[in-house]
Design a protein that fits this description.
Layout (H helix, E strand, L loop, with lengths): L1 E4 L2 E4 L6 H17 L3 H4 L6 H9 L3 H7 L2
Antiparallel strand pairs: 1-2
């Protein structure tokens, strides 16, 4: 589900294993970036993908809590 707030976009994905899903999603997105060429990047919105990947990364404090 996607929700929009004044200054953010919130994406919720139901899954049995959120960590595995998150990892697979990032790998899939990075794989798609690998096959990007000058020919297919210029006339689309591909530039948003790296920003999305950055936002998928938890901050350091969250990561520390994940291992406890």
């Amino acid at each position: 589900m996607v929700r929009f707030e004044e200054n953010k976009l919130i994406i919720e994905v139901e899954t049995n294993n959120p960590i595995e899903y998150w990892s697979d999603l990032q790998n899939s997105l990075l794989y798609s970036m690998r096959w990007t060429t000058d020919e297919n990047i210029h006339n689309n919105k591909f530039y948003r993908l790296p920003d999305f990947l950055i936002e998928l990364q938890p901050d350091f404090g969250v990561m520390m809590k994940m291992i406890k």
